[in-house]
Design a protein that fits this description.
Blueprint: H1 2-12, E1 16-17, E2 21-24, H2 31-40, H3 42-45, H4 59-74, E3 79-85, E4 90-100, E5 106-113, H5 122-137, E6 142-147, H6 152-160, E7 164-175, E8 178-188
Parallel strand pairs: 5-6
Antiparallel strand pairs: 1-2, 2-3, 3-4, 4-5, 6-8, 7-8
Helix pairs in contact: 1-4
The chain binds coenzyme A (COA).
The site of coenzyme A has 19 residues, from strand 5, helix 5 and helix 6.
Length: 194
């Protein structure tokens, strides 16, 4: 049953193709590559992410993660993607979450890159590829991003892709176990995608 639900989610969301990157919904078959990459990148990612649950990298927790993804996609709440390079290698992930319809028509973007793949320009390409999906297919009009004020790589990525700084939110998210202030960025449908 869970297997069929996972398949269904993958089919609900199209594969998004960018310049030298492909984004698609996570599948059970990605588990080993995902767990290996996350495990190898643990200390690289740790300062920028919520604390990982103790069992996060287990197959069971991954299965639960996929079930949550299916539910969120079906309910138009979130759209998770894995990012693959031109060789088809899993390099990272990017998730559209907190979809708000009604008078907001907005979502949040979050991303991570495996340490060994960072600095190759791949997340810039992934975010550029995702923007038309958000604005044209999901018909949202705004993508929000929050990052730590000292996350130079993330700030550079957002600025390169056309996001504009909109504010500063105090104790906005609990990152690495600490409630930390964040810079708030957004890209509007009416902005040129960088
Ligand atoms: C942020 C992150 C996703 C960027 O992915 P990436 O594929 O490495 O990004 P790109 O290579 O497309 O672009 C990164 C840019 O930041 C720059 N950069 C990287 N590290 C930097 C640093 N320490 N100081 C200044 N600039 C830096 C790169 O030079 C590049 O800019 P350029 O093209 O002008 O040279 C990746 O670094 C990462 O996963 N970091 C840890 C987790 C994280 O920060 N997640 C986001 C939380 S908001």
């Amino acid at each position: 049953m869970a297997f069929f639900r996972t398949l269904a989610a993958a089919e609900l969301v199209p594969t998004v193709a960018g310049e030298g990157v492909t984004l698609r919904t996570p599948q059970m078959a990605d588990y080993q590559a995902w767990a290996d990459l996350r495990s190898a990148s643990r200390s690289f990612l740790r300062p920028w992410e919520p604390i990982w649950p103790a069992d996060d990298l287990t197959r069971l927790a991954y299965r639960r993660r996929l079930k949550r993804y299916v539910r969120e996609i079906e309910q138009d709440q979130a759209y998770p993607f894995f990012v693959f390079d031109a060789e088809g290698q899993l390099v990272g992930g990017v998730t559209l979450s907190q979809v708000r319809r009604g008078v907001a028509q907005t979502c949040s973007v979050g991303y991570w890159m495996g340490e060994r793949h960072a600095g190759r320009g791949l997340m810039t390409k992934a975010v550029r590829a995702l923007a038309p999906f958000v604005f044209t297919q999901l018909k949202l009009r705004r993508i929000e991003a929050a990052c730590l004020p000292f996350n130079a790589a993330s700030i550079r990525l957002l600025e390169k892709t056309g996001f504009q700084k909109e504010g500063y939110a105090r104790e906005y998210l609990c990152i690495d176990g600490v409630w930390q202030d964040h810079l708030l960025y957004a890209l509007l449908r009416s902005d040129a995608v960088g």
